[in-house]
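Sample intake sheet
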Amino acid sequence: VQLVESGGGSVQAGGSLRLSCSISGYTQSSYCMGWFRQPTGKEREGVAVIDSDGFTSYADSVKGRSTISIDIHKNTLYLEMNSLKPEDTAMYYCAADAPTARADARTLHPNYLGQGTQVTVS
């Protein structure tokens, strides 16, 4: 399984970004996929998760400002973030959990992890 993120960049506070994660080599019919972020010098945090039952979960820090979605036909996972704050600055990673895992941002486990895309909010 390969996960390749894109869409990061520098944005002013209050702005928006949409991160994309191109998924290849994933053959399971079920999925639980999401996004982590890790600010420099801080611990990694589960940000948003979606599973094949349609459930989603968000960290409190992004709830109400972010939307996770997946386009199965395009094999792409998205994270749209609005009203960005400087504290959203971090490396954002796409992750695939176990196929039958439940969508929970607190327990997202990266069986597979992308290389990351940097988001900087100033």
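Comment: The chain is about 0% helix and 50% strand. The first strand starts at residue 2 and ends at 6.
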